[in-house]
Amino acid sequence: MGAPELDWWRSAVIYQIYPRSFADANGDGMGDLPGITSRLGSLKTLGIDAIWLSPFMRSPQKDAGYDVSDYCDVDPLFGTLDDFDKMLATAHGLGLKVLIDLVPNHTSDQHEWFKRAVAAGPGSPEREFYHFRDGDVPPNNWQSMFGGPAWTQLPDGQWYCHLFDSSQPDLNWENPAVQEAFEDILRFWLDRGVDGFRVDQPHAMGKAEGLPDHPDVARAGAGFIEGEPSPPMWFQDSVHPIFRKWRAILDSYPGERAMCGEAYVLPLSFMALWVRPDEFHQTFNFRYLDSPWTASDIRACVDESFAAFGSVGAPSTWVLSNHDVMRHASRMGGDFGRTTASDGVGPNDPQPDAELGLKRAVAATLFTLGLPGSMYLYQGEELGLPEHTTLEPEFRQDPTFARTKGARVGRDGCRVPLPWEANSSISNGFSSTGKSWLPQPASYASYSRDLQESVEGSTLETYKRALAMRKELNLGHGTFEWVEYLCSESVLAYRNGNLLVTHNFETSETSWEVGHQDT
Ligand code: GLC
After folding, report:
1. Hey, which of 277, 317, 399, 479 has its CA 20 to 30 A from 515?
2. Residue 281 — very low, low, confident or very high, per pLDDT cuts 50/70/90?
3. Fold adopted by 8-106+175-204+241-472
4. Do 410 and 396 touch, CB atoms closer than 8 A?
């Protein structure tokens, strides 16, 4: 039994592929679409329901593809549209759904729209695609998420807004032409047969009228303070009609196409507004990813998640790792808070305990896989891959590193290419030539997939067993209740249907029992 076709997204286990680092078919050191196609069989045997691909569209790659210069073409680094179609057909043939990344808050500065806007000059309709302003100094105090001011000045004197890198100008979503252009982009990929989208930074798309100052940059930096009114660049109400339109477009296609918003909106009761029945199907539960791994924090988070999402009839998603945060096998091997987790760890920082981290991470994953809802896995976590925490500065590519002059090392450590077959001279099977756009740490050989396949007790086999059981017991569509008499300061126990899950946060042990009766 798999996720039923109807409402598949409510329970699906969705595996994130980071195309640069998944598998390299042409040996240039950069993962690509043919590489993904060739390895999809392994994902099928892992037992997932769907894949989500981080961006593979045309891009100067200033932010690893989250700076798109053509939304309707494949970057030559990753292949061609034809390669995409083959990958999609292969995935569908294996019964896997495919979500792709859509980046609507900003384009690359090499996108035709931006190039035209620069050429057309101040006051032109072309500039209305973005946020341009006059002035001798930056128009307001907004900061970039990657460090430094959120404004860059052109030689003609106008400033443009970028909440991320200066190569990623923010689009003006008040402009109907921008809205129409994206509706066409959605249709382009839906017509090709994708099952939906992971939408990047949707909570950044709306900007308060007049672009007023952030009320508290000193405390919030580029971000926001939970529980306080949203600053002028985050989760503005004006964006909801846009997502309702998108939802109607998705719903007009056969099958159930779904969208998951990377809506970093907290508390979860606010995030839930993004998954009302006519908006996103899902959002990433960042509260769960951010929670310290203690019984009280996780209990509070699980309760809050079911209450918030349940109030609008949406499932919760569960997520522990992705391409923006320290891998949970390393995060849990030390005292790393949320900020360190997203700023990255370098050779001069305190290092995680790999053994403890892996034990805790696998236990955390098992605890999570028993929960009803949908689960996101990040490529390599099924191998127990640690973060590359000793990457030397010369290899760093995340714009955060350069924009903060190395003060924040950035996210490269979780983006290192995967080890498939242990052989360090050919980057452990990632590419046939041994090339790899980021070097793997020496330890990666020992995590290679071939060393874990069919090996009882390996991280990979543990994931496979848990995923198989999740499917067999239909846990994603299941029910949830705490088993109070087993819960304590260090233990959480819950029941999902016939399954009893107990997790000891002190020893990092999880056990699953099926058909357990208690009194
Ligand atoms: C999202 C992506 C991240 C990217 C940022 C800007 O958070 O996950 O990788 O840098 O948006 O597009």
Report:
1. 317
2. very high
3. TIM Barrel (3.20.20)
4. yes
